[in-house]
Specification:
elongated, 315 residues, 44% helix, 7 helices, 4-stranded antiparallel beta sheet, alpha+beta
């Protein structure tokens, strides 16, 4: 396709858009859709992304009807668009392939064969572990493609492109001002919803922090225990707002510290603990008993004190 033909195609599409009242209405609805998308928690909830998908599909269907029955406006395809469409189609097709049940057994995730054996059923294997989540992702990806297509077709004319850019700036600025107002006002509400789940957030990077004590002084009724042979039976760690960690007499014998009585719930906020943690230490009598406390996860660990309980030898 020559540059002259591309230019004519753009001019024809521009004239059609200017004259077509239905397309003008579609343009306004598309701008409203773009303004709505960030409003319900960035359309990042099942109900909000489903609603966004329905609205985008309705607008694409409306656009298709205008192409078929109202003045037949030209479909604008910029240079290189086919390569973009091919890349998107490959990603979209691969997502569908992951939930397709008729694939070689070697491709399927092993959870399907294990579940079939446990349930004594002939379930079809798939690459995806969660086909429902994969289909949801396909729906959301298709929604974004619909919005991209509508925006590309409706901003062929320069005056519509200018208006779309101004609307985009106004929408982004409005949401930014609202977010800053909520943040600096100290409000615990997002829209009219409380935000207790993330008012106090601790984020960390994974690295290993390790504490190794000097020789611990075990209580001895005869006086100082320094230099004597002793054995540590138990250690009490006093921690504040702590999760995880491990401790032991040396790096080869570190046991995880379990502060919670029940395992954590998937998807729930991590519970931090401020308490005394008592645990046993294996080891015989020797001089220079020490303790190692390690945190190798991106979780908070605040150690306030270490107390030891043990017994001393005669020398």
């Amino acid at each position: 396709m020559t540059e002259a033909s591309i230019s004519r195609q753009r001019d024809d599409a521009s004239r059609s858009i200017r004259k077509d009242a239905a397309t003008k209405a579609l343009y306004g609805l598309t701008v409203l859709l773009l303004a709505w998308a960030p409003f319900p928690f960035a359309s990042n909830r099942p109900w909000s992304w489903s609603l966004l998908a329905v609205m985008a599909a309705v607008l694409v269907a409306y656009w298709g009807l205008t192409v078929l029955f109202i003045r037949r406006p030209s479909i604008y395809l910029p240079k290189g668009f086919l390569w973009i469409a091919l890349a998107f189609g490959l990603a979209w097709g691969w997502a569908w392939f992951q939930i397709w049940g008729y694939i070689p057994e070697a491709f399927a995730h092993q959870i399907w064969s294990e579940s079939a054996a446990v349930l004594s059923s002939d379930s079809q294997g798939r690459i995806s572990v969660n086909p429902y989540a994969t289909m949801t992702s396909i729906m959301r990806l298709t929604t974004y493609a619909f919005i991209f297509w509508l925006t590309m077709q409706l901003t062929v004319a320069s005056h519509y492109a200018s208006r779309a850019l101004k609307a985009f700036v106004i929408i982004c600025t409005s949401y930014a001002i609202y977010g800053l107002a909520v943040q600096f006002s100290g409000s615990n509400l997002v829209l009219w919803y409380p935000k207790p789940a993330y008012t106090d957030v601790v984020a960390g990077l994974k690295y290993t922090s390790e504490l190794e004590t000097l020789a611990l002084a075990i209580p001895d009724p005869e006086g100082s225990s320094m230099g004597k042979v002793g054995r540590i039976d138990h250690v009490v760690l006093r921690v504040f707002n702590t999760v995880g960690g491990s401790a032991g007499p040396d790096t080869s014998n570190l046991d995880p510290l379990q502060f919670a009585d029940e395992p954590p719930v998937m998807g729930a906020a991590v519970v931090v603990h401020s308490k005394d943690k008592k645990f046993g230490v294996e080891g015989g009598f020797r001089r220079g008993q020490s303790l190692i406390v390690r945190q190798d996860e991106p979780l908070p660990f605040n150690l306030l004190s270490i107390n030891v309980l043990g017994s001393m030898g005669q020398r």
